[in-house]
Amino acid sequence: MVVKINITVIGTGYVGLVTGTCFSDLGNRVYCVDIDENKINALKKGIIPIYEPDLEKLVVKNYEKENIIFTTELEISLTNSNICFICVGTPASDDGEADLTAVFEIAKNIGKLMNHDMIVVTKSTVPVGTGDKIKSIISKELKDRGVEYGFEVVSNPEFLKEGTAVKDSMRPDRVIIGSDNDKAIAILKELYAPYVKNHERFIIMDIKSAEMSKYASNAMLATRISFMNEIANICEKTGADVNQVRLGVGSDARIGYSFLYAGCGYGGSCFPKDVKALIKTGENVGYTPKILKEVERINQNQKYVIINKIKKHFGDDLTGLKFAVWGLSFKPGTDDMREAPSIVIINEILKAGGSVKTYDPKSMELSKTILPKDNVEYVSKRDQVLDNCDALILVTEWNEFKSPDFNKIAKTLKSPVIFDGRNQYDDEVLSKFGIKYYRIGR
Ligand code: UDX
């Protein structure tokens, strides 16, 4: 394939690594830059720091083809590129505000090191107005150096989901380009064109609206989930069933079915952090976002719904009881444990005197570094978890947990009871097996 565009991607986390790899797969030459030397050395050997379907084979293939270069040398990368993507993390600070230290540090370095004109694209989720700050930082550095290179700052938020990140990048619902510069817009359109056959998927807007679109999208999805969790909690007290209600609500074409699943709370690196950051953005300009505050509060509470059901069944003191836990990651398809409901549920069981035996297809090694060591046992097979346990808790709906051998569960658990945080099973089927079944919203 012919090399088309030379690109620098700064940051090799979820967004950077997936973005860089997908651009390289189109035949572009991509410099993936990170300050973490160990990570870069591992990537050169084909060791991927995260689990993400299809990513490893694409990285290896394109590294062998020399379409991807892994490096810690930002200067060389920028020298060889005309476009650079900022893809570093913007974690929540203690007060919920997005921490932009890494983004601003990179802007400074770009200003210090660029030696020709450059398009600087922010893919990291950044609060409204960050693009302008990046512009000022780069301008100042160029001025201090006494050089006059042209540059444009563009917002191009990333909407990929963990677990389907490669697919999402290669088939985006939309590509938002926040810029008023025709040349920068044209280059980004050219770059994305192979992944966006239908050009109507490009949405061009001003940079601030592009920055806000990312937060508003995540906040809307988080709101739908918290809304359904709230409905689920009302269902539990009124005798309605949230599973049925979801069908009744989602069938309205104006609403749709997706992101209406009640559960034991949303986790991950984006929803919790972005809802908090958007609240902070509002507060910083004198506006208190009331809905968003409740979205966040409902989600915190929702992580306790399962433990409350456990205590209602067994009593507050769980001493001597052992709980089988299926799934640890915040959702299926990833090993990511950030803000995972499993952390809250397991810690609460331990606090109440119980112990835990667990299995997750991908995140057990990571969990060992996050969960308490005492009274948490890890096993390597789904059904092994059940031995000597009093009850089963489903926390993450991996495929292999979706249609288990209920007969075996009924026979192996000491008192056959399942607490389902993801509403995966059929109440009638479980009752036939003599299993007491607790789920969300019924
Ligand atoms: C999210 C956004 O979807 C993505 O566009 C953005 O770029 C990053 O944040 P991600 O965090 O990878 O992606 O996961 P997602 O699939 O959106 O799920 C987030 C959380 O919501 C998970 O904990 C999931 O279990 C939960 N969820 C999702 C529900 O509880 N109910 C639902 O109906 C959907």
UniProtKB/TrEMBL annotation:
<comment type="pathway">
    <text>Nucleotide-sugar biosynthesis; UDP-alpha-D-glucuronate biosynthesis; UDP-alpha-D-glucuronate from UDP-alpha-D-glucose: step 1/1.</text>
</comment>
<feature type="binding site">
    <location>
        <begin position="159"/>
        <end position="162"/>
    </location>
    <ligand>
        <name>substrate</name>
    </ligand>
</feature>
<feature type="binding site">
    <location>
        <position position="273"/>
    </location>
    <ligand>
        <name>NAD(+)</name>
    </ligand>
</feature>
<feature type="domain" description="UDP-glucose/GDP-mannose dehydrogenase C-terminal">
    <location>
        <begin position="324"/>
        <end position="427"/>
    </location>
</feature>
<dbReference type="InterPro" id="IPR014027">
    <property type="entry name" value="UDP-Glc/GDP-Man_DH_C"/>
</dbReference>
<feature type="binding site">
    <location>
        <position position="90"/>
    </location>
    <ligand>
        <name>NAD(+)</name>
    </ligand>
</feature>
<feature type="binding site">
    <location>
        <position position="338"/>
    </location>
    <ligand>
        <name>NAD(+)</name>
    </ligand>
</feature>
<keyword id="KW-0560">Oxidoreductase</keyword>
<dbReference type="GO" id="GO:0051287">
    <property type="term" value="F:NAD binding"/>
</dbReference>
<feature type="binding site">
    <location>
        <position position="125"/>
    </location>
    <ligand>
        <name>NAD(+)</name>
    </ligand>
</feature>
<feature type="active site" description="Nucleophile">
    <location>
        <position position="270"/>
    </location>
</feature>
<dbReference type="InterPro" id="IPR036220">
    <property type="entry name" value="UDP-Glc/GDP-Man_DH_C_sf"/>
</dbReference>
<feature type="binding site">
    <location>
        <position position="214"/>
    </location>
    <ligand>
        <name>substrate</name>
    </ligand>
</feature>
<dbReference type="InterPro" id="IPR008927">
    <property type="entry name" value="6-PGluconate_DH-like_C_sf"/>
</dbReference>
<feature type="binding site">
    <location>
        <position position="39"/>
    </location>
    <ligand>
        <name>NAD(+)</name>
    </ligand>
</feature>
<dbReference type="InterPro" id="IPR036291">
    <property type="entry name" value="NAD(P)-bd_dom_sf"/>
</dbReference>
<dbReference type="Pfam" id="PF00984">
    <property type="entry name" value="UDPG_MGDP_dh"/>
</dbReference>
<dbReference type="InterPro" id="IPR017476">
    <property type="entry name" value="UDP-Glc/GDP-Man"/>
</dbReference>
<dbReference type="Pfam" id="PF03720">
    <property type="entry name" value="UDPG_MGDP_dh_C"/>
</dbReference>
<keyword id="KW-0520">NAD</keyword>
<dbReference type="InterPro" id="IPR001732">
    <property type="entry name" value="UDP-Glc/GDP-Man_DH_N"/>
</dbReference>
<dbReference type="GO" id="GO:0003979">
    <property type="term" value="F:UDP-glucose 6-dehydrogenase activity"/>
</dbReference>
<dbReference type="Pfam" id="PF03721">
    <property type="entry name" value="UDPG_MGDP_dh_N"/>
</dbReference>
<protein>
    <recommendedName>
        <fullName>UDP-glucose 6-dehydrogenase</fullName>
        <ecNumber>1.1.1.22</ecNumber>
    </recommendedName>
</protein>
<feature type="binding site">
    <location>
        <begin position="259"/>
        <end position="263"/>
    </location>
    <ligand>
        <name>substrate</name>
    </ligand>
</feature>
<dbReference type="GO" id="GO:0006065">
    <property type="term" value="P:UDP-glucuronate biosynthetic process"/>
</dbReference>
<dbReference type="InterPro" id="IPR014026">
    <property type="entry name" value="UDP-Glc/GDP-Man_DH_dimer"/>
</dbReference>
<feature type="binding site">
    <location>
        <position position="162"/>
    </location>
    <ligand>
        <name>NAD(+)</name>
    </ligand>
</feature>
<comment type="similarity">
    <text>Belongs to the UDP-glucose/GDP-mannose dehydrogenase family.</text>
</comment>
<dbReference type="InterPro" id="IPR028357">
    <property type="entry name" value="UDPglc_DH_bac"/>
</dbReference>
<feature type="binding site">
    <location>
        <position position="34"/>
    </location>
    <ligand>
        <name>NAD(+)</name>
    </ligand>
</feature>
<dbReference type="GO" id="GO:0000271">
    <property type="term" value="P:polysaccharide biosynthetic process"/>
</dbReference>
<feature type="binding site">
    <location>
        <position position="331"/>
    </location>
    <ligand>
        <name>substrate</name>
    </ligand>
</feature>
<feature type="binding site">
    <location>
        <position position="267"/>
    </location>
    <ligand>
        <name>substrate</name>
    </ligand>
</feature>
